[in-house]
Amino acid sequence: MVTSHTWHQGAVPVAPTWPIPVPLLPDELFSSWLVRAALLHGCDPLVLTGSIWPKWRLWCTDFDRGVPDNRLIKISRVAGISEHSFSSTSLRAILTQITPQNLDDSTWPWLLALGSRNRHRHGGVQYCPLCLACDRVPYYRMNWRFAWHTICAQHKVVLKDSCYKCGAPIIFHMLTISNPHLYECANCGFDLRTVNVSEAPSGALTLQLSADATVCKKQGNYSGQLMAAVDWFHLLSYFIEIFQITSRSKSTKLVNFLESFDISGGDLFKSSTGLPFELLSVVDRMRYMDAANKLIACHVSHFYESAKLTRLNKSTLCGRNTVVPGIISHLICDLPEVRHHGRERTVSTKLMPRSRSTVKAMMARLFRKL
Ligand SMILES: [Zn+2]
Ligand SMILES: [Zn+2]
Fold first, then answer.
1. Rounded Cα distance, 305 and 301, in Å
2. Once rounded to an integer, what is the mean pLDDT over residues 271-278?
3. What is d(CA 305, CA 260) in angstroms, rounded to the nearest whole number?
């Protein structure tokens, strides 16, 4: 059994009432454990959960975010695993530490969105082919749901977020007793472990590990200053927003500004779908994380000096809906303020051929909605 863990240590069943004890593995998602438990007992996940919670359509929801205690009691008794152990798989417990928002039913910051429609999903789960291949019992980890995770820290390879053969998202909850292995694609049966892996850029991994450490220690570091985890993640989302603004506007000043951090505008333009970070593909998020590592590694004074040198104005760094992190906002307050007015934002409704990148962005948004 794998013994290392970051988010929870797993649990060994004690006196379960069902025939086969099913240990909760280190860092395992609750949904992964439920699917394994059902398949080990020779039934489909839908059948098992229907018998335990007959009135709860859990597979139509993102229940890995957290399950109420009154529901955990039922599974806890039959599985011989404490409610506390199951509660430790809750993604809510982690994400509440890094976002000031109330976490409701909408898309959560930093959590990959499943895009559920009934039991079908459009994404939201990643995996490492080498981890699944090394597992004695293949299973899905909590960190494969986090938007800042794009790389397996153990194998240093880029995570996958779809089936190589059929392109379907990772929908292990749709596995049935006719294809009962968690390493199989639930759509086509392809062995998800047998794909080529690509080596990960070191910057993206460095930042991912910093983000993990920030969650675990409840505080992060930027520019030699310690800050609360929620502020550190706010800073990271602000940097990512700058990349997204640069991708959309292709502003020469912003491109020059980023080049002063050795960030190539051309690389960022490849990710210009306009989708929120939590809906982007693993490769697009990794590109942003690699670039953000360069920004976060520099002192805040370099941010200010570069903004001045490239003649950025304050409004470019403070979008209309942007809350600028405190450590940045007071520094950029003496940059020139140039507001754009309605005339520049007028959207043309004239039908005409669109550029390749615009069509690509429209298709990406459409696929997430279908
Ligand atoms: Zn791995
Ligand atoms: Zn497939």
1. 6
2. 80
3. 10
Whole-number Å distance, alpha carbon 333 to ligand 1 midpoint, is 44
**Sequence-separated contacts (24+) of 215-221 with Cβ below 8 Å:** 215/94, 215/97, 215/98, 216/6, 218/97
Domain extent for 308: 230-338+352-369
* Cα torsion angle, 318, 321, 324, 326, sign: positive
Give domain status of residue 117, yes or no: yes
| Cα angle, residue 151 at apex, residues 150 and 157 outer, rounded to 5° | 135
What's the angle, vertex CA 163, arms to CA 159 and CA 169, rounded to 5?
85
pLDDT digits 0-9 by tens, 224-267? 999 999 999 999 999 999 998 888 888 899 999 999 999 987 77
Per the CB < 8 A criterion, the answer to whether 171 and 256 are in contact is no
Assign 227 to helix, strand or coil.
strand
| Type of residue at 270 | K
Evaluate whether residue 88 is within a structural domain: yes
How many structural domains are present in the chain?
A: 2
Contact between 32 and 140 (Cβ < 8 Å)? yes
Ligand nearest to the Cα of 170, by number: 2
Nearest listed ligand to the Cα of residue 183 = 2
For 301-357, give the DSSP string: HHHHHHHHHTT--HHHHS-TT----HHHHTTGGGS------HHHHPPP----PPPHH
Asked, for residue 134, whether it belongs to a domain, the answer is yes
Tokens matching residue 197: 């892996």
Query: How far is residue 318's CA from residue 328's CA, in Å, rounded to a whole number?
Result: 10
pLDDT digits (tens, 9 = 90+) for 60-110: 999 999 999 999 999 999 999 999 999 999 999 999 999 987 888 788 999
Residue 119 and residue 367 in contact, taking contact as beta carbons nearer than 8 Å: no
* Per-residue CA distances from 279 to 11, 159, 341, 365 (Å): 32, 15, 30, 9
Rounded to the nearest angstrom, the distance between the alpha carbon of 340 and the centre of ligand 1 is: 47
Instruction: Answer positive or negative: Cα dihedral of 125, 130, 133, 138.
Output: negative
Among the bound ligands, name the one nearest to the CA of residue 152: 1
Distance, CA of 236 to CA of 242 (rounded, Å): 10
